[in-house]
Amino acid sequence: MKKIFISPSVLSADFTRLEQECKSLEKCGADWIHCDVMDGNFVPNITFGIPVIRSMRRCVVLPLDVHLMIDAPERYVEQFADAGADIITFHIEATKNVSQTLKLIHSCGKKAGISVKPNTPVGALTPYRGMFDMVLVMSVEPGFGGQQFIPSSLDKIRRAKQLFPNVLVEVDGGINADNVKQVVEAGADVIVAGSSIFGEQDRKSAIDRLRNAR
Question: Least packed by Cβ within 10 Å: which of 2, 15, 101, 160?
C-alpha cells in the first residue's frame, strides 16, 4: 500500500499562536506543512510571505510545502528557498517562464512542484515532463479556504497520474473524511487539508482518518 502524505494548510490555523499550531501538527503526525502564499493579484486574497516561512522554519523540522499563488513566482524563488521552503510549487498560469522557474527551484536544492487551476487541463504540463517532482491539482478555485471540492477534479487527478506516473500528485481544496477515499483512489499521493484538520479537537485523529480512509 502506497504512503499517503498529509500536508495540513496553515491557512486555517490560528495565526496568533502560529508556533504552537505548527508544533501541534508535528506532534499529531502530519508529514508536511502546507503554506499558501497569495499576493492579491494572481488570486483575490493576500496571506503571508517570506518572513512567516522563515519563522515557521525555526519552529519545526517538518518539510515546508510552499504553494506560491503569486504572479511571476520566479522573482521570489531564491528568497523562499533561503527562508526554509523544502518544496516550492507555482502555477503554470502565473508565469511565462515555466522551464526557467523549475530549473531555478532545483538549482536552489529544492523540490519543484507545478500547479493547475480547475479550468486548466493537466495536459498543459506535458511540455515540462521530467522537470518537476510534483503536480498540484487544485480542486477548488485558489484564493480562499473552506470551499467545496469540485467533483470533476477526480478526472484531473486520474489524468495527472496517467501522464506523470513518476511524480507525486498533490490535491488541494475541499478535502475531508467524506471524500478523501475517492481522491486517493483517483491517484492522489499528497492530501492538503485545512479546516478538516484545524477545525477538529483531535487533530491526530483527523490526520489519521485522512491518511487511512482507503
Answer: 2
